[in-house]
Amino acid sequence: MAAKKNNQTNTVKDINYYKKKFWRIFAYSLLGVLAFFLFASWGLFGSMPSFEDLENPDSNLATEIISSDGVVIGKYFKTNRSQLKYSDLPKSLVEALVATEDARFYEHSGIDGRGTLRAVFSLGTNGGASTLTQQLAKQLFHGEGSRFLPFRILQKVKEWIIAIRLERQYTKNEIIAMYCNVYDFGNYSVGVSSAAQTYFSKDPKDLTIDESAMLVGMFKNSGLYNPVRNPEGVKNRRNVVLGQMVKAKMISEAEKERLQALPIALKFKLESHREGTATYFREYLRDYLKKWVTENKKPDGTEYDIYKDGLRIYTTIDSRMQKYAEEAVAEHMKNLQQQFFIEQKNNKNAPFVNITQAETDRIMTQAMKNSVRWAQMKEMDKSEDDIIASFKVKTKMRVFTWKGERDTVMTPFDSIRYYKHFLQSGLMAMEPQTGNIKAWVGGINYKYFQYDHVGQGARQVGSTFKPFVYATAIEELNMSPCDSILDGPFMIHKGRHHVTEDWEPRNSDYRYRGMVTLKQALANSINTVSAKLIDRTSPEAVVDLTRKLGVKTEIPVQPSIALGAVDITVEDMVAAYSTFANQGVYVKPQFLSRIENKSGEVIYEPIPESHDVLNKDIAFAVIKLLEGVTETGSGARLRTQGGGSGDNRWTGYPYMFKNPIAGKTGTTQNQSDGWFMGMVPNLVTGVWVGCEDRSARFKSLTYGQGATAALPVWAYFMKLCYADKDLQVSNSEFERPANLSIKVDCYQRPAVVKDTTQTEQNTDEFEL
């Protein structure tokens, strides 16, 4: 009996002993887990985001360039990521995301308990347990992390802690928006905003249900479900998402069937710095911002990073005008280029005209030395002889053509000569009253031709310089557009106005018209009249006025500038002409409206610059002179429909404009440069056309003159602008000053015909 009792006692003792041991182990384990979570939250197992980090996560946001009409026309980025608010997301995308990735998103507080237990008991075979908030935590602060199980567990714990903190810090809607902003959709597109632009060329708010479902499907694995490489897999995944939306009662079964039958319809457009709209302007702006960030620091004294700080650059560019300008340049240059190739077929030294072999060699050698190939081989310590030899070896390459890029085989040397054939163009349009630049086209294709012919390229302006001479004459000599002057042989003798030998200008048609009004003289771009006027006013007076008009390039103080022997940029020419349209007030061209940081705070707002140059009467008199150019002069084809020599290259002709237009064509010696400056009351546009090298040119005036080379670009552009009524481009008269003191309406010839530029003292200099 005693033994039996002892056994019962030992059994009871053993049970109590194991119960205590179990609860001790359980308590220690629980305390260990709690300590583990506590230590992890303190950062003992690796850094954890602070309160400030959660408030302002490292966003690495692309800087957006925004047009005056609210369109994102480009970005600067290392990671193409744009931020959007929850209100910017389409309802269909939010519903698809929740239904597919986290059905109980609105019920949990960062961790889905049911999902976690399911994942643990099924060892992950029945789906994972990461909530949207956990996935956001991973994207923001850890990335994919380690595949080593202990480290993976530690990372999962950190995700839980961060997820709970995020839920406390942000609303559910803010968490969804943040998640949609950080996911990498491939093809340099981070975030829904960038992905919508890349894959569908639209804003997120405009996405359809099936497009939203496709993007949500990519959240699972954007590398695998890439619609460019794997359209069938993407379609299947999209259909799975649509099925989840049916389960969540977000769409009907019938709607699901309809949407699942749709193909994957992409409008794929890879966003890059070298492609898209306003490429030349964006590069000009980038150079400006490089200097701006050194002069405008953050509150903490550090510099802004335009590639990751998510700045919003609001520009004056109008996306519609920019599109029309690019279309006008492309259509005309494509048309004119055909004629250029035709002319060069029998030219053994194409595209160069009338230059020696030594000059040709100099141009080609310089082009080789400016090439990327030369720079790369120099870095490899190759000798100059080896580098030059490499330019003679045929290689596969992709070249630009007006019919699209083409794969071919040629030597790098031949490719340089091939690209020298291409006519280039520069166009800028500006509001004269505000200085706001509305369109900027620096060339024909930024990917292949990076040189900007608006802001960088100063070219000889030809007869477009003459209005500055006429304006000086009206101001200095009290002349009017209706005053008469003799078109006849004229010479400025050696020693006068710094000329080193006798200078006798000729008219382009080698004939003289006798007595003409100033309006007729400018309309017909008569060289002798311009020479007479600068002789009377002095070159110094003309240069001084041109400086006041904002021209920054060096201008020689010589009478020959009256005929346009001056290099000026398109940007400066547009600003100068705008002064006439703005009643004599010069306004510096403006391309920025404001800059905001990623929080929407304005951190920079430029101050417009302007100054008086001419009084209103003189400015209006110049406008009336320039109207004569489009009424009866070299710009008259803007109003006719009869055609003429070379009219098959007048792109968009007949134009049939009936509204007042002030303008001036310009053609330089040997047809190396063609210009047209065109003005209506609220828009001034300048166009230049020519080859990169001045020795590459048309052989005759038929196609090389400004009226054929440049004017059609302006006409095509303006026709598109007038067709878009929302732009409100003016077709009315220029504002006439009250009590105008200068005669501008030349309806009758003067009763006494005389050369009103002559005086008794210098009559001999004007004799025939």
TrEMBL record:
Keywords: Carboxypeptidase, Cell membrane, Cell shape, Cell wall biogenesis/degradation, Glycosyltransferase, Hydrolase, Membrane, Multifunctional enzyme, Peptidoglycan synthesis, Protease, Transferase, Transmembrane, Transmembrane helix
Gene3D superfamilies, per database record: Biosynthetic peptidoglycan transglycosylase-like, DD-peptidase/beta-lactamase superfamily
Cellular compartments annotated: Cell membrane
Pathway: Cell wall biogenesis; peptidoglycan biosynthesis
InterPro entries (alphabetical): Beta-lactam/transpept-like, Glyco_trans_51, Glycosyltr_51/Transpeptidase, Lysozyme-like_dom_sf, PBP_transglycosylase, PCN-bd_Tpept
Catalyzed reaction equations: Preferential cleavage: (Ac)2-L-Lys-D-Ala-|-D-Ala. Also transpeptidation of peptidyl-alanyl moieties that are N-acyl substituents of D-alanine; [GlcNAc-(1->4)-Mur2Ac(oyl-L-Ala-gamma-D-Glu-L-Lys-D-Ala-D-Ala)](n)-di-trans,octa-cis-undecaprenyl diphosphate + beta-D-GlcNAc-(1->4)-Mur2Ac(oyl-L-Ala-gamma-D-Glu-L-Lys-D-Ala-D-Ala)-di-trans,octa-cis-undecaprenyl diphosphate = [GlcNAc-(1->4)-Mur2Ac(oyl-L-Ala-gamma-D-Glu-L-Lys-D-Ala-D-Ala)](n+1)-di-trans,octa-cis-undecaprenyl diphosphate + di-trans,octa-cis-undecaprenyl diphosphate + H(+)
Transmembrane regions listed in the UniProt entry: 25-45
Domain Glycosyl transferase family: 71-245
One Pfam short name: Transgly
Domain annotation Penicillin-binding protein transpeptidase: ranges: 428-682
Major place of residence: membrane
Protein family (similarity comment): In the N-terminal section; belongs to the glycosyltransferase 51 family. In the C-terminal section; belongs to the transpeptidase family.
Protein name: Transglycosylase domain-containing protein
Organism: Flavobacterium endoglycinae
